[in-house]
Write a structure and sequence with these properties.
The structure is a single chain. This protein is α+β, with helices and mostly antiparallel strands and 116 residues long. It is built from three helices and six strands. The strands form two sheets. A four-stranded antiparallel beta sheet has the order 2-5-1-6, with helices on one face. The protein has a two-stranded antiparallel ribbon with strand order 3-4. The longest helix has 12 residues. The model has no long low-confidence stretch (mean pLDDT 93). It binds adenosine-5'-triphosphate and magnesium ion. The site of magnesium ion has 5 residues, from loops.
């Protein structure tokens, strides 16, 4: 299993949700975050030029998936979130050691697959 993290523009939230749904990915967590993508704003001060790390609003998706669903999860997020302009975001993939569905006690791949 993997935990796929997608950090995207807030205005792309619904597009990413729809793309995940179409890719048959069901469980997802979303949070509003602030982030910095590396661009430095130069700020003039009376002592000279300084740089400021500006923070931008982003939305963070977390999707726990079985290994066979990793690629289509990444592709769904990227295709839905891309504008081609700087600041489109990033996808990170972690190994995921365990998952438990609390209601049933199901573990691991059974816990991250939808119930019917
Ligand atoms: N190395 C990183 N570690 C953690 N979070 C990051 C990292 N890089 C980017 N992010 C997150 O992703 C958001 C969007 O980053 P952004 O798309 O600007 O990345 P980038 O590498 O500058 O690419 P681009 O050149 O397309 O702007 C950031 O605001 C931050 O939340
Ligand atoms: Mg950037």
């Amino acid at each position: 299993m993997k935990l796929v993290i997608g950090i995207v523009r807030p205005e792309k939230t619904n597009d990413v949700l729809e793309a995940l749904y179409r890719a048959e990915i069901r469980g997802v967590s979303i949070s509003r975050i602030q982030g910095h993508g590396g661009e430095l704003d130069r700020v003039e001060t009376y002592r000279g030029t300084q740089v400021k790390m500006g923070l931008e609003d982003k939305v963070r998706f977390e999707v726990a998936v079985s290994d066979d669903a990793v690629e289509r999860t990444i592709e769904a997020i990227c295709a839905a979130a891309r504008t081609g302009e700087v600041g489109d975001g990033k996808v990170f993939v972690h190994d995921l050691a365990e998952a438990v569905r609390i209601r049933t006690g199901e573990r691991d791949v059974n816990a991250v697959s939808p119930t019917t």
